[in-house]
Amino acid sequence: MDTANLSPKSDHIHRMFTAVPPRYDLINHIMTFGQDIRWRRLAAKACLEIKPQRVLDIGCGTGDLTITIARSAGKGVEVTGVDFSRPMLELAEKKAIESGVGGKVKFVYGEAADLPFPDGHFDCVGISFAFRNLTYKNPVKEKHLSEVLRVLKQNGRYVIVESSQPANRTIKTLFDLFLRGFVAPVGSLISNNRGAYSYLAESVSHFYSPPEVKQMLLTAGFSHVSYRPLVFGTAGIHVATK
Questions:
Q1: Which residues contact 43 (CB under 8 A, 6 or more apart)?
Q2: Domain 3-241, what architecture?
Q3: CA 74, CA 32: separation in Å to the nearest integer?
Q4: pTM above the 0.85 mark?
């Protein structure tokens, strides 16, 4: 993949997530009080419910969802993670080996807007906390969604675990205060990357509501979308069917 061909938005995110890997997992666990581990298990369960033969984790980062899926998947299930940050993928490969699933997964360097896989190759595509980066104020979000549709088989699933917008205004206000007063400064301090976690807090705070995400997915060509809120609606799982 040639990073020179990335859109300005994708290039900005690429530079951020190439810089933060060393403490990325620790910060995620701190910011969610460890709940991100449970949320990925729920997403993995949604992926495996349809008994897939091939699963893709897009924007896999350090491989947490990829590894979670591989641990629960039966024999013969191919699990692949794709990301455009080489440092993230290097950590993912090490973690997979340490987790005992090194032989069950493979990691591929690639860009979400130009996935290096053939049409209809996967039964399920999962994504954990990267969907926001691919769609929020991203001028090529339609391309990202069309690529997921392209590589999915008919009746395949797109399972998204992502931050969300609480419907309750009081919870929304408290959530925004938490993002600005805790997530941004603590993430910046631990990672020594202020820009990445200022962006994180801003994008989470202003991300689309569940109905908006549903409409986006339906407009892209998915036929059915369900939603499960998590932790008072501050996060959630969308399951879209091709």
A1: 65, 68, 126, 128, 159, 160, 161, 237
A2: 3-Layer(aba) Sandwich (3.40)
A3: 29
A4: yes
